[in-house]
Amino acid sequence: MARRTAQPAYWSIAMVLLCGVFATPSANAHEYKPGVVAIKEVKPGRFLLQWSPPMPNVEDLELRLPGDCTVDGSRSLQLSRTVPGLSLSLECGPSGLGGELGFDTESTSAGRIGINVEWLDGTESFKLTTGDPPAVMLGATASPNSTWQVLGQYVLLGVEHIWLGVDHLLFLLGLLILVRGFRRVLLTVTAFTLAHSITLGAASLELLTVSTAPVEICIALSVLLLAVEATRGPETASRRWPWLVAFGFGLLHGLGFASALSEVGLPKNAVLVSLLGFNLGVELGQLAAVVAVAATYVRLRRHPAIERRMESAAIWVLGICSVFWLLQRVDGWLEPLLALQ
Known about the structure:
By secondary structure, this protein is α+β, with helices and mostly antiparallel strands.
């Protein structure tokens, strides 16, 4: 019997440790955002290149330019020395923009990077890097991606965002700590989904404009609120009407999703498809997280003592991470404001 009861304990403890690794505040203090290379053709054989680094950043990332393309005569570009958003002249000559564009790094994985190309005739193409080291093949002709390619790429971005944006995952975890019963869980998660879909769509279509820094601060506050509520009795408003809490803060989290999506951008010829794909990816990643937590509770139902310890550990993770994020995001918001005085 001892051997059989030990298995759930070891499995559960491993889950907590794994969550702790991914929720380390120093590694994920901000929203997860993919890196983006934006290339715009200004005349045949000549382009402007802009770099937006991923978050968290990769310090030693190097860009290998495709074909015969050069920046200041060099076939590669040290992105750590490149000012984000600064337009660099990319000369490709008669061969045009064709060949493999890739990234090299020695310290850590570069993650998935988006490549946006705007051609001289106004058409656009978007691709995500694949492989290790990450790379993508670019063609010299302006051939836009198919609808299914765009949909699949943005679904992948959405899944990555929800899984690497740890603050969103911890908010979901906090909701599930407060809620018991399949029907209440379904209603709460549906309210969260509906809310963040509304603000994600409105912000992405530029119907709503909100500064990113206050949104990130409020997202950290939402996680902290759930941590506090999880320590209180069963008669709190958050436990009685968790779907209202999920809907209210879901509006904020949708603005956070839109901020990440704005870094990549929406192709002009497939705005609704890409927005749908990103939102679908977020939902798939969210569903996987909910299923994983629900499976944990089912597994621990026969071991109430372990379940209490696990829940207590989860609340501590919520509280510590949310306070860390809150302090860092407030500091990051106030620093440029104080510098102006």
